[in-house]
């Protein structure tokens, strides 16, 4: 048996590039792909300190949805969802995008009011959304416990039918192969250790594989963006937290949609292979250790077993953590920085995977033109000075 | 689970505490004179280092007092209390 062909090359860095993207996760790879595809900028390197898509891209729970409350959020996430809908064809790679729908459960009267309000807001923004009664939830998800005797009974749910999941590794590999075919260099084991400057401008990066010149530098490092910004001399409104997730052993198909509950705090889907994939909120403390505390796992398991009594017999196969960069308003920071020719895409917190194609699209446009893409403009860094926050905390079924 | 060194009660389980973020962020001396940029710095732009970090914890299920500790954000080790 021969080894299958590599999907992308493993080049040594050139002396310089038009754009250097720091971080070869989903967002970095998508950004490089759209720089080449949409803007003809192919002299691009994506630098990765570890291996390609080995950070949060390998650790997330792959939920894709666009049912956010505010107009700015709905616009960018819906743009992303529309790209997901054509992505397998666009990249000529089956990424197992499955529009199996996402439920966000309500467990209290305030939850119900928030949910109904969000359904209406979504519809006004052209995002598909429905309000389901407990009986309708039970019909859609027969294994869910809708007994009104529970401490936190299911009182209804929002439902976005077009939402779903995709296979995260395939997404990364598909973008990597497509970017490589357009001439992008994907350079692994290449940690950025500093920046080259000419006055206020940045002219390149120092890396573990030598100096690389760059006309423009695009930060795309999720939980480590603050570290890069600190070496550039500015601060970002981010706190890096561990976000844990877990999978069960492989089981027969029992769940064919995605169920999220903020109030008792668990979200769960069943992957194509059969494992139950679960996550919840971040660990409370700042951390870069890619591991969290056990009580966080314990409480999300308790929530899952209350909602799905048959899960009590499932075994946890493994747990892990990624490092997510959480912003004060639970919205991303996307655009220009105080340093000329340096751009930033960060602050996606616990929800960056769903934005992969959309963020890559608008970030590439922002880098190519040196000004914010219209969908990125509300997410500029200066909103923390003007006060025009996009406050999605609790407003968008976001659980942090 | 972290074992958080409360200076009043000794080491206790993390679940007894609330996390308070970066320590030593002083309330502005003269808030009325602050510019928008200075407010943004005070409210939102906190340090987020990979390494030693001075931070606040609140012992909600114990003595109910705030305290500062220095913790490493990669190893999660607490500096020995002085």
From TrEMBL, chain A:
Signal peptide: none
Keyword Flavoprotein assigned: yes
Chief location bin: cytoplasm
GO MF terms held by the record: nucleotide binding; sarcosine oxidase activity
One GO cellular component term: cytoplasm
Domain of life assignment: Bacteria
Catalysed reactions listed for this entry: sarcosine + (6S)-5,6,7,8-tetrahydrofolate + O2 = (6R)-5,10-methylene-5,6,7,8-tetrahydrofolate + glycine + H2O2; sarcosine + O2 + H2O = formaldehyde + glycine + H2O2
DNA-binding keyword on record: no
UniProt cross-references to Pfam families, sorted A to Z: DAO
Every Rhodanese domain range: 19-63
SUPFAM superfamilies: FAD-linked reductases, C-terminal domain, FAD/NAD(P)-binding domain
Subcellular localization: Cytoplasm
Any single biological process term in GO: tetrahydrofolate metabolic process
Enzyme class name: oxidoreductase
InterPro entries xrefs: FAD-dep_OxRdtase, FAD/NAD-bd_sf, Rhodanese-like_dom, SoxB
Cofactor (UniProt): FMN; FAD
Keywords tagged on the record: Cytoplasm, FAD, Flavoprotein, FMN, Nucleotide-binding, Oxidoreductase
Entry's EC annotation: 1.5.3.24
Listed Gene3D superfamilies: D-Amino Acid Oxidase, subunit A, domain 2, FAD/NAD(P)-binding domain
NCBIfam families assigned to the protein according to its UniProt record, in alphabetical order: soxB
Sequence similarity: Belongs to the SoxB family.
Name recorded for this polypeptide: Sarcosine oxidase subunit beta
Organism: Asanoa hainanensis
From TrEMBL, chain B:
A Gene Ontology biological process term: tetrahydrofolate metabolic process
Organism: Asanoa hainanensis
Protein name: Sarcosine oxidase subunit alpha/sarcosine oxidase subunit delta
GO molecular function: sarcosine oxidase activity
NCBIfam families: soxD (TIGR01374)
Chain coiled-coil ranges: none
Residues annotated as signal peptide: none
Pfam entry (one): SoxD
């Amino acid at each position: 048996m021969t080894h299958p062909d590599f999907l992308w090359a493993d080049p040594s860095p050139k002396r310089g590039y038009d754009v250097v993207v720091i971080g070869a996760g989903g967002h970095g790879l998508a950004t490089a792909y759209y720089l080449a595809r949409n803007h003809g900028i192919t002299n691009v390197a994506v630098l990765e300190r570890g291996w390609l898509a080995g950070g949060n891209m390998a650790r997330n729970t792959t939920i894709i949805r666009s049912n956010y409350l505010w107009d700015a959020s709905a616009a960018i996430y819906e743009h992303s969802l529309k790209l997901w809908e054509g992505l397998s064809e666009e990249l000529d790679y089956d990424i197992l995008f499955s529009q199996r729908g996402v439920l966000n459960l309500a467990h209290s009267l305030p939850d119900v009011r928030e949910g109904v309000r969000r359904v209406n807001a979504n519809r006004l923004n052209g995002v598909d959304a429905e309000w389901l009664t407990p009986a309708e939830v039970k019909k859609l998800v027969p294994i869910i416990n809708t007994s009104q005797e529970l401490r936190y009974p299911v009182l209804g749910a929002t439902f976005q039918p077009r939402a779903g999941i995709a296979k995260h590794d395939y997404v990364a590999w598909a973008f990597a192969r497509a970017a490589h075919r357009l001439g992008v260099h994907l350079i692994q084991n290449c940690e950025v250790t500093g920046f080259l400057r000419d006055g206020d401008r940045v002219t390149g990066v120092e890396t573990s594989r030598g100096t690389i010149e760059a006309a423009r530098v695009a930060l795309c490092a999720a939980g480590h963006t603050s570290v890069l910004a600190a070496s550039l001399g500015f601060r970002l409104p981010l706190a890096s937290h561990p976000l844990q997730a877990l999978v069960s052993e492989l089981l027969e198909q029992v769940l064919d949609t995605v169920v999220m509950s903020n109030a008792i705090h668990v979200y769960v889907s069943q992957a194509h292979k059969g494992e139950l994939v679960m996550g919840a909120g971040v660990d409370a403390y700042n951390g870069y250790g890619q591991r969290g505390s056990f009580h966080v796992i314990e409480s999300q398991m308790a929530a899952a077993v209350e909602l799905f009594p048959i899960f009590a017999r499932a075994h946890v196969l493994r747990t892990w953590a990624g490092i997510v960069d959480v912003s004060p308003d639970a919205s991303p920071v996307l655009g220009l920085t105080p340093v000329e020719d340096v751009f930033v895409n960060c602050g996606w917190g616990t929800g960056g995977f769903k934005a992969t194609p959309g963020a890559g699209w608008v970030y590439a446009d922002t880098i190519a033109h040196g000004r914010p893409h219209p969908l990125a403009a509300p997410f500029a860094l200066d909103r923390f000075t003007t006060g025009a926050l996009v406050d999605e905390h609790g407003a968008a079924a976001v659980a942090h | 689970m972290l074992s958080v060194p409360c200076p009043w009660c000794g080491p206790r389980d993390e679940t007894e505490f609330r996390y308070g973020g970066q320590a030593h962020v002083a309330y502005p001396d003269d808030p009325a004179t602050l510019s928008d940029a200075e407010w943004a710095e005070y409210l939102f732009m906190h340090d987020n280092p990979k390494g030693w970090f001075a931070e606040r914890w609140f012992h909600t299920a114990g003595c109910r007092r705030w305290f500062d500790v220095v913790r490493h954000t990669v190893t999660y080790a607490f500096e020995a209390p002085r």
